[in-house]
Specification:
This protein is of the alpha+beta class and about 180 residues long. It is about 45% helix and about 15% strand. A hairpin with a 2-residue loop joins β1 (about 95-100) and β2.
Length: about 180
Amino acid sequence: MHIPDSVEIRDKRVELGLTQAEVAEKAGLSQSMIARIESGTVDPRVSTLRKIVEVLQRAQSSMITAADMMKSPVISVQAKETVASTVSIMENYGISQIPVLDMGVPVGCISESAIINAMDEGRIQKIQSQVVSDFMEEGFPTIPKSTDMDTIIHMLHNHHAILVVDKGIVEGVITKHDLIAIISR
């Protein structure tokens, strides 16, 4: 584990646009303690450093937006596409669900589960002739590029993916995997 020195703490605080008073308030410390730590005149306890680092990490994660996390271009299909070609796309990319777009606008999604359920119910006979719109499910939620990471985390608790839109047109996608990748950077 890397323990930041006084210069690293000051530089990170400044980079995040925080004042010493803001860091102090959020960490439950005095502004003068932050000033002394940053100047190197006091050697803080590990618990004090941990509080400061947590404040800085929270501030940094709130600066990450959907635009920073999204993957683009979005792998998608159209509602009129055959289920066979959709299954082939899913296999090629190793994905289990795919958004359905109409001229860049989300209209639903199709998943392996929906296809399997339709097979189980006897609704699919020949996937070469059946189209996605026959088995389409409700689409993924959409968010603007400016959405913060905390909101994205909350939304991914209930959804497998989120579409990032600009002026109603899908520009990117964020999955649970993308979120985990951000944390591991």
